[in-house]
Protein backbone atom coordinates (compact mmCIF):
# COMPACT_ATOMS: atom_id res chain seq x y z
CA UNK A 1 0.00 0.00 0.00
CA UNK A 2 1.54 3.34 -0.98
CA UNK A 3 1.40 6.49 1.11
CA UNK A 4 -1.30 8.17 -1.07
CA UNK A 5 -3.54 5.16 -0.45
CA UNK A 6 -2.83 5.44 3.27
CA UNK A 7 -3.76 9.15 3.25
CA UNK A 8 -7.00 8.46 1.41
CA UNK A 9 -7.78 5.63 3.80
CA UNK A 10 -7.09 7.95 6.72
CA UNK A 11 -9.39 10.61 5.28
CA UNK A 12 -12.19 8.16 4.76
CA UNK A 13 -11.71 6.58 8.17
CA UNK A 14 -11.61 9.99 9.83
CA UNK A 15 -15.04 10.71 8.38
CA UNK A 16 -16.44 7.65 10.14
CA UNK A 17 -17.08 5.61 7.03
CA UNK A 18 -16.08 2.21 8.41
CA UNK A 19 -17.86 -0.81 7.14
CA UNK A 20 -18.43 0.49 3.60
CA UNK A 21 -17.37 -1.82 0.78
CA UNK A 22 -17.92 -1.63 -2.94
CA UNK A 23 -19.55 -4.78 -4.37
CA UNK A 24 -16.66 -5.51 -6.74
CA UNK A 25 -13.89 -3.74 -4.88
CA UNK A 26 -10.79 -5.21 -3.39
CA UNK A 27 -10.91 -4.21 0.25
CA UNK A 28 -8.19 -2.01 1.72
CA UNK A 29 -7.42 -2.35 5.41
CA UNK A 30 -6.73 0.68 7.59
CA UNK A 31 -3.25 -0.57 8.45
CA UNK A 32 -0.77 -3.02 7.03
CA UNK A 33 -1.92 -5.39 9.77
CA UNK A 34 -5.24 -7.17 9.74
CA UNK A 35 -8.06 -4.76 10.58
CA UNK A 36 -11.74 -5.38 11.30
CA UNK A 37 -12.64 -2.28 9.30
CA UNK A 38 -13.15 -2.29 5.53
CA UNK A 39 -13.54 0.88 3.50
CA UNK A 40 -14.60 1.73 -0.01
CA UNK A 41 -12.25 1.35 -2.93
CA UNK A 42 -10.92 4.53 -4.47
CA UNK A 43 -11.59 4.47 -8.20
CA UNK A 44 -11.45 6.75 -11.22
CA UNK A 45 -14.14 9.44 -11.03
CA UNK A 46 -17.06 8.80 -13.36
CA UNK A 47 -17.89 12.47 -13.96
CA UNK A 48 -15.53 15.38 -14.52
CA UNK A 49 -15.63 18.48 -12.32
CA UNK A 50 -15.32 22.03 -13.66
CA UNK A 51 -15.16 25.24 -11.66
CA UNK A 52 -13.26 27.29 -9.12
CA UNK A 53 -13.40 27.36 -5.33
CA UNK A 54 -11.74 29.11 -2.42
CA UNK A 55 -10.66 26.72 0.35
CA UNK A 56 -9.53 27.77 3.83
CA UNK A 57 -8.07 25.33 6.35
CA UNK A 58 -5.53 25.08 9.14
CA UNK A 59 -2.39 22.98 9.37
CA UNK A 60 -0.78 23.02 12.81
CA UNK A 61 -2.55 26.32 13.55
CA UNK A 62 -1.37 28.00 10.34
CA UNK A 63 -4.18 29.13 8.04
CA UNK A 64 -3.90 28.07 4.41
CA UNK A 65 -5.86 29.99 1.78
CA UNK A 66 -6.19 28.08 -1.48
CA UNK A 67 -7.82 28.50 -4.85
CA UNK A 68 -8.83 25.28 -6.58
CA UNK A 69 -9.38 25.27 -10.34
CA UNK A 70 -10.79 22.03 -11.75
CA UNK A 71 -10.89 21.25 -15.47
CA UNK A 72 -12.28 17.74 -15.69
CA UNK A 73 -10.34 15.04 -13.90
CA UNK A 74 -7.32 17.24 -13.17
CA UNK A 75 -6.84 20.68 -11.75
CA UNK A 76 -4.54 23.02 -9.90
CA UNK A 77 -4.46 24.18 -6.30
CA UNK A 78 -2.62 27.40 -5.43
CA UNK A 79 -2.07 27.90 -1.69
CA UNK A 80 -0.89 30.93 0.27
CA UNK A 81 0.35 30.32 3.82
CA UNK A 82 2.90 31.48 6.38
CA UNK A 83 5.93 29.18 6.45
CA UNK A 84 7.12 29.14 10.07
CA UNK A 85 10.46 27.62 8.98
CA UNK A 86 11.36 30.56 6.72
CA UNK A 87 9.38 33.24 8.57
CA UNK A 88 7.77 34.28 5.25
CA UNK A 89 4.46 34.02 3.45
CA UNK A 90 4.81 31.57 0.57
CA UNK A 91 2.65 30.53 -2.37
CA UNK A 92 2.68 26.92 -3.54
CA UNK A 93 1.04 25.36 -6.58
CA UNK A 94 0.25 21.68 -7.03
CA UNK A 95 -1.52 19.38 -9.47
CA UNK A 96 -4.77 17.82 -8.27
CA UNK A 97 -6.25 14.53 -9.50
CA UNK A 98 -9.95 13.67 -9.09
CA UNK A 99 -10.92 10.23 -7.76
CA UNK A 100 -14.16 8.81 -6.40
CA UNK A 101 -15.22 6.57 -3.52
CA UNK A 102 -18.35 5.67 -1.63
CA UNK A 103 -17.46 8.49 0.78
CA UNK A 104 -17.45 11.20 -1.90
CA UNK A 105 -15.08 12.82 -4.34
CA UNK A 106 -11.41 12.73 -3.48
CA UNK A 107 -8.74 15.11 -4.74
CA UNK A 108 -5.14 13.98 -4.48
CA UNK A 109 -2.36 16.58 -4.61
CA UNK A 110 0.96 16.03 -6.38
CA UNK A 111 4.20 17.90 -7.00
CA UNK A 112 4.00 21.04 -4.82
CA UNK A 113 6.16 23.74 -6.42
CA UNK A 114 6.79 27.41 -5.76
CA UNK A 115 3.98 29.17 -7.61
CA UNK A 116 4.99 30.32 -11.08
CA UNK A 117 8.01 27.99 -11.19
CA UNK A 118 8.79 24.32 -11.70
CA UNK A 119 10.98 24.29 -8.58
CA UNK A 120 9.74 21.74 -6.06
CA UNK A 121 8.98 23.12 -2.61
CA UNK A 122 11.36 21.35 -0.19
CA UNK A 123 8.99 21.09 2.80
CA UNK A 124 5.39 21.52 1.57
CA UNK A 125 3.42 18.30 1.91
CA UNK A 126 0.86 17.67 -0.89
CA UNK A 127 -2.77 18.30 0.05
CA UNK A 128 -5.58 15.72 -0.29
CA UNK A 129 -9.31 16.45 0.07
CA UNK A 130 -12.60 14.58 0.50
CA UNK A 131 -15.70 16.41 -0.78
CA UNK A 132 -19.18 15.27 0.29
CA UNK A 133 -22.67 16.61 -0.21
CA UNK A 134 -24.84 15.59 2.73
CA UNK A 135 -28.51 14.61 2.25
CA UNK A 136 -29.41 18.11 3.51
CA UNK A 137 -27.46 19.61 0.58
CA UNK A 138 -24.67 20.91 2.83
CA UNK A 139 -21.14 20.48 1.46
CA UNK A 140 -18.58 18.97 3.84
CA UNK A 141 -14.87 19.04 3.01
CA UNK A 142 -11.87 17.63 4.88
CA UNK A 143 -8.17 17.72 4.11
CA UNK A 144 -5.24 15.57 5.16
CA UNK A 145 -1.84 16.31 3.69
CA UNK A 146 0.75 13.63 3.00
CA UNK A 147 2.26 14.32 6.45
CA UNK A 148 -1.10 13.23 7.95
CA UNK A 149 -2.08 16.68 9.22
CA UNK A 150 -5.86 16.92 8.93
CA UNK A 151 -8.39 19.73 9.14
CA UNK A 152 -11.95 20.64 8.19
CA UNK A 153 -12.14 22.97 5.18
CA UNK A 154 -14.27 26.06 4.58
CA UNK A 155 -15.41 26.07 0.95
CA UNK A 156 -16.67 28.95 -1.18
CA UNK A 157 -17.47 28.74 -4.89
CA UNK A 158 -15.84 31.36 -7.11
CA UNK A 159 -18.04 32.37 -10.04
CA UNK A 160 -16.27 32.15 -13.39
Characterization of this structure:
This protein is mainly β. The radius of gyration is 16 Å and the shape is globular. It contains one helix and eleven strands, in the order H-E-E-E-E-E-E-E-E-E-E-E. The strands form two sheets. It has an eight-stranded antiparallel β-barrel. Strands 1-2 form a two-stranded antiparallel sheet. The relative contact order is 0.20. It has one domain (44-158): Lipocalin.
Quick recap:
The chain contains 1 helix and 11 strands. The chain is mainly beta and 160 residues long. The chain is globular, with a radius of gyration of 16 Å.
Report the structural category: mainly beta
CATH class: Mainly Beta
Major sheet: arrangement of strands = 4-5-6-7-8-9-10-11
Major sheet size, sense and barrel closure? 8 strands, antiparallel, barrel
Mean pLDDT: 81
Beta-strand share of residues: over 45%
The CATH topology, please?
Lipocalin
Shape annotation: globular
* Number of continuous helical runs: 1
End-to-end distance, in Å? 38 Å
Report low-confidence residues grouped into runs of 5 or more: 12-39
- Total strand count, please? 11
* Helical content (DSSP H or I, runs of 4+): under 10%
CATH architecture: Beta Barrel
Instruction: Report the order of strands and helices.
Output: HEEEEEEEEEEE
Count of distinct structural domains: 1
